[in-house]
């Protein structure tokens, strides 16, 4: 009788059997396809608080009933960062589990009404574009429009468009023309302003005053945030799995040992939310409106520390409440070596001091 657990026997069996693969290749996507993602996720208070606590998002309106009611909520709502991460996490098995570079995400939007614990999240994605990659023939480029909806009411809770490189089953022949790069001139100096202005506080009026000061000279309203968050097993492995993100990059050390990182890496939405948590700690956030032009520049692994840098782009008085104004920011997350790891623009309503 064959002992299948004998190491030599089992090794030979492994060499001969096929692997039932997970995920889809580039050839499996066609523009116009709509994918109903089978997993669902109930947004819970525990999941919300776990995400917020580990990414240093401490806005009291998402923790305390009295603070939530003062902001116009019935109870502490689901944080937009957790909602975004959960929406994307559910899609990974169907869209990007095969791997490939996350090229960007934009038009991240939320409903006008708050989302509360107990909402059952249903997610679908439409393929909006498929393109070949002339620089990487082993990959194609796919863009999806994803919507997370309330399974009971059908209300859209979160939507965005994201783009990934997706492995092909068979590489295509190219001339490599897309890989052309321009030699950098070592004598070129970065085109930075002469001065940087830091807002005096975190209220809407403080951002307006800083922008006005910057307009009077060749200056930019830009500053770094003091806090940092070193990545550990919870942020790198536990948080993505809690959002049903099955990408091997976040939980399979064996596979990732031969990758450039040499280890599992942080889910991009954890990196992003951590940087935004640092930024929000220096402002009086009222509501999140949306995010655009998000990019992830390099991997973040266990032991790396995520810091944040903010540039204030513009401010306007209009908002959903008279107690707030609207500010548009550019946020850049960077690591302990001062390398950018994430960037994106964010529009948020900021509390007025006079409100």
Automatic annotation (TrEMBL):
Pfam families per the UniProt record, alphabetical:
MC_hydratase
Annotated region (Disordered) at 168-191
* Domain of life per record: Archaea
Annotated InterPro entries: HotDog_dom_sf, MC_hydratase, MC_hydratase_acr, MCH/BMMD
- PANTHER family given for it? BETA-METHYLMALYL-COA DEHYDRATASE, MONOAMINE OXIDASE-RELATED
Q: What is this protein called?
A: MaoC family dehydratase
| Source organism of this protein record | Haloterrigena gelatinilytica
């Amino acid at each position: 009788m064959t002992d299948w657990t004998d190491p030599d026997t089992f090794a030979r069996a492994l060499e001969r059997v096929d692997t039932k693969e997970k995920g889809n290749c580039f050839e499996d996507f066609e523009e116009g396809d709509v994918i109903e993602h089978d997993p669902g996720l109930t947004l819970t208070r525990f999941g919300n608080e776990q995400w917020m606590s580990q990414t240093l998002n401490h806005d009291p309106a998402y923790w305390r009933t009295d603070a939530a009611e003062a902001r116009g909520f019935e109870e502490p709502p689901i944080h937009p960062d957790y909602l975004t991460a959960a929406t994307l996490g559910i899609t990974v098995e169907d869209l990007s589990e095969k791997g490939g570079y996350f090229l960007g995400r934009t038009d991240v939007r939320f409903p006008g009404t708050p989302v509360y614990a107990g909402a059952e999240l249903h997610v679908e994605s439409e393929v909006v574009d498929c393109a070949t990659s002339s620089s990487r023939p082993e990959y194609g480029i796919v863009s999806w429009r994803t919507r997370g909806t309330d399974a009971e009411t059908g209300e859209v809770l979160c939507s965005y468009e994201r783009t990934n490189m997706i492995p092909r089953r068979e590489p295509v022949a190219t001339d490599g023309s897309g890989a052309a790069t321009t030699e950098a001139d070592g004598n070129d100096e970065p085109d930075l302003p002469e001065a940087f202005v830091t807002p005096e506080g975190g209220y809407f009026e403080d951002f307006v005053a800083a922008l006005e000061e910057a307009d009077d000279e060749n200056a930019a309203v830009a500053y770094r945030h003091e806090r940092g968050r070193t990545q550990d097993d919870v942020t790198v492995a536990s948080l993505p799995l809690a959002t049903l993100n099955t990408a091997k990059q976040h939980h399979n050390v064996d596979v990732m040992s031969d990758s450039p990182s040499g280890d599992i890496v942080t889910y991009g939405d954890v990196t992003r939310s951590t940087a935004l948590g640092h930024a929000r700690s220096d402002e009086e956030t009222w509501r999140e409106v949306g995010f655009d032009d998000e990019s992830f520049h390099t991997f973040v692994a266990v032991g790396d520390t995520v810091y944040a840098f903010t540039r204030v782009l513009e401010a306007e008085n209009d908002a959903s409440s008279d107690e707030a104004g609207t500010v548009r920011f550019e946020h850049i997350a960077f690591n302990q070596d001062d390398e950018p790891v994430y960037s994106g623009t964010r529009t948020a309503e900021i509390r007025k001091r006079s409100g």
